[in-house]
C-alpha cells in the first residue's frame, strides 16, 4: 500500500506513529548516554529515507522526532553534556518531500549545538555525498545512528549496511519489508527477483534459504531469519533483534530490525519498545494486540525452556546468558528465565555470595550457572 503513496504528505497509520515514537524514545536515551560519555566527539543521526518531516495527522516525521530527542537530551543534561555537536542528516530522494522537510526544519527553533544536513538524493548517493563533505561521521569516526525507513523492499543494498556497520559505534534501525521481499521472491523473474534479492542480501544465499520447503505464509520469517543471520555474521555486530509490526488486518506489515555493537544499545531499544506498547506485547498491531502472540515481556516460561535447551549440560558465565537473552528473547537480561529454571530445579547457580537468595542473580557475584543434562 505504502508504495503507492504519491502525495507530498499522507496520513500516518497507527503503526507508523508507533515506529516514530519508538525512534524518539530510543534516541532520547542514545543522545543522553553518549552526550555524557563521548567527550568532545560529535554525534551523528542519519535519516536515510527522511520523508517530508510531518504527516497530515501528525506534526513529527522521523527527522523532526530525532531533532526533538536531541534537543531534549541537550536540555536535560545541561552542563553534563560532554560530547561535541549533534549532526542530523536527512536524505530524501523525492524533490517535493525534500523541500517540504527542509522548509519545516529551516523554520524550527533548533539549538546551535545541532547542525542539520540535507541531501536530495537516494539513500545510497546521499551517503556517498556525506562521505565527501566536511564534517562527516566517517573521518574521524563518530558515534552514528542510522534510521533506514524505505517504502517497500528496495533501496537498501546490504553492501551499504555492511559498510556502515563496519565502523565503531554505529547502530542501525531498518524498516525491513520481510513480507514484500517474500512476495518478490515468489513473483520470480516477473519481479526481477534475482537482482533485487542479491542486492538486499548481498549475495545469493537467499536462493538456498528461501527455496526451502516453507509454507508460503511463513516465507516472511525465512526472509527475516536470513537477514538477521547476515547482520549477525558481520564482524562488529553482536546484537541483532527484530520487532514485529502488524497491520490492521493483523497480517505482518514489516519488521523493525535493530543492529548494534553494544549490549546497551539493544537493552535500551527493548526498553523503548516497552514504553510504547503498554499492553506488555512486544509486537505491534493496529487491530487486536492480544492476537499477536509473537513476544511477551511478562511470561518467561516459553523462553526459559529455549534458554535451557540452548545451554543444556553446560556451565556458563552470566555474560553469555545476557547476550543470549538480548538476541533471542524479548527480555533485556536472563534473570526472569533463570528464576523460572531455578524454581524448577533445572539449573545450579554458583555464586560467591553465601547469602544469595534463590531466584536472585547478581551478575557481579555470579561465578557460573550449570544447566542440568538429563531433564
Ligand atoms: C516511509 S517514508 C519515510 C518516512 C519517514 N522516515 C518518517 O518516519 O517520517 C519513505 C521516504 O523515502 C523516500 N524515498 C524513496 N526512495 C528513496 C531512496 N532510494 N532514497 C531516499 N529516499 C527515498 C520517499 O519519497 C519517502 O518520503
List keywords for this structure.
16% strand, 11 strands, eight-stranded mixed β-sheet, 375 residues, single chain, binds S-adenosylmethionine, globular, alpha/beta, Rossmann fold, three-stranded antiparallel β-sheet
Total DSSP E strands:
11
Strand content is 15-25%
The gyration radius over C-alpha positions equals 22 Å
Q: Which distinct ligands sit in these coordinates?
A: S-adenosylmethionine
Helix-residue proportion: 40-55%
Secondary-structure arrangement, i.e. CATH architecture of the largest domain: 3-Layer(aba) Sandwich
The total count of helices amounts to 13
Can you put this structure into words, describing what you see?
With 375 residues, the chain is an alpha/beta fold. The protein has two domains: 290 residues, Rossmann fold (3-Layer(aba) Sandwich); 71 residues. The chain has 13 helices and eleven strands. Helix 2 links the parallel strand 1 and strand 2. Helix 6 runs antiparallel to helix 7 and helix 11 crosses helix 13. S-adenosylmethionine binds next to loops.
Task: Give a summary of the structure in a few sentences.
The chain has 375 residues and is of the alpha/beta class.
Write the layout of secondary structure elements.
Blueprint: H1 14-37, E1 43-47, H2 62-77, E2 86-91, H3 95-106, E3 114-119, H4 123-131, E4 144-148, H5 158-165, E5 170-176, H6 178-187, H7 193-201, H8 205-210, H9 219-232, E6 239-246, E7 252-260, H10 263-276, E8 284-285, H11 301-311, E9 315-316, H12 318-328, H13 335-343, E10 347-351, E11 366-371
Amino acid at each position: 500500500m505504502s508504495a503507492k503513496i504519491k502525495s507530498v504528505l499522507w496520513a500516518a497509520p497507527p503503526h507508523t506513529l508507533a515506529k516514530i515514537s519508538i525512534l524518539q524514545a530510543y534516541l532520547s536515551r542514545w543522545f543522553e548516554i553518549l552526550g555524557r560519555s563521548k567527550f568532545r566527539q560529535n554525534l551523528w543521526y542519519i535519516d536515510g529515507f527522511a520523508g517530508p518531516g510531518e504527516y497530515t495527522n501528525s506534526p513529527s516525521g522521523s527527522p523532526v522526532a530525532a531533532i526533538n530527542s536531541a534537543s531534549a537530551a541537550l536540555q536535560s543534561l545541561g552542563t553534563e553534556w560532554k560530547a561535541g555537536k549533534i549532526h542530523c542528516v536527512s536524505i530524501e530522494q523525492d524533490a517535493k518531500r525534500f523541500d517540504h522537510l527542509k522548509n519545516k526544519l529551516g523554520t524550527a527553533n533548533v539549538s546551535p549545538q545541532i547542525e542539520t544536513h540535507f541531501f536530495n538524493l537516494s539513500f545510497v548517493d546521499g551517503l556517498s555525498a556525506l562521505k565527501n563533505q566536511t564534517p562527516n561521521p566517517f573521518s574521524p569516526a563518530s558515534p552514528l545512528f542510522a534510521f533506514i525507513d524505505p517504502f517497500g523492499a528496495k533501496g537498501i543494498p546490504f553492501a551499504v549496511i555492511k559498510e556502515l556497520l563496519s565502523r565503531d559505534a554505529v547502530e542501525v534501525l531498518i524498516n525491513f519489508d520481510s513480507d514484500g521481499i517474500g512476495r518478490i521472491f515468489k513473483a520470480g523473474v516477473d519481479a526481477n527477483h534475482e537482482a533485487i534479492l542479491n542486492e538486499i542480501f548481498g549475495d545469493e544465499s537467499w536462493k538456498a534459504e528461501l527455496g526451502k520447503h516453507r509454507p508460503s505464509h511463513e516465507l516472511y520469517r525465512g526472509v527475516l531469519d536470513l537477514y538477521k543471520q547476515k547482520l549477525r555474521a558481520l564482524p562488529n555486530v553482536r546484537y541483532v533483534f527484530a520487532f514485529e509490526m502488524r497491520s490492521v488486518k493483523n497480517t505482518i506489515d514489516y519488521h523493525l530490525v535493530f543492529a548494534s555493537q553494544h549490549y546497551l544499545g539493544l537493552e535500551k531499544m527493548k526498553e523503548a519498545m516497552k514504553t510504547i506498547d503498554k499492553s506488555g506485547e512486544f509486537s505491534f498491531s493496529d487491530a487486536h494486540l492480544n492476537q499477536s502472540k509473537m513476544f511477551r515481556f511478562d511470561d518467561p516460561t516459553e523462553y526459559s525452556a529455549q534458554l535451557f535447551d540452548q545451554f543444556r549440560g553446560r556451565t556458563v558465565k552470566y555474560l553469555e546468558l545476557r547476550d543470549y537473552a538480548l538476541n533471542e528473547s524479548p527480555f533485556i537480561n536472563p534473570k526472569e528465565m533463570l528464576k523460572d529454571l531455578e524454581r524448577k530445579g533445572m539449573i545450579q547457580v554458583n555464586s560467591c555470595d553465601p547469602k544469595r537468595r534463590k531466584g536472585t542473580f547478581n551478575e557481579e557475584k555470579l561465578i557460573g550457572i550449570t544447566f542440568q543434562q538429563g531433564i
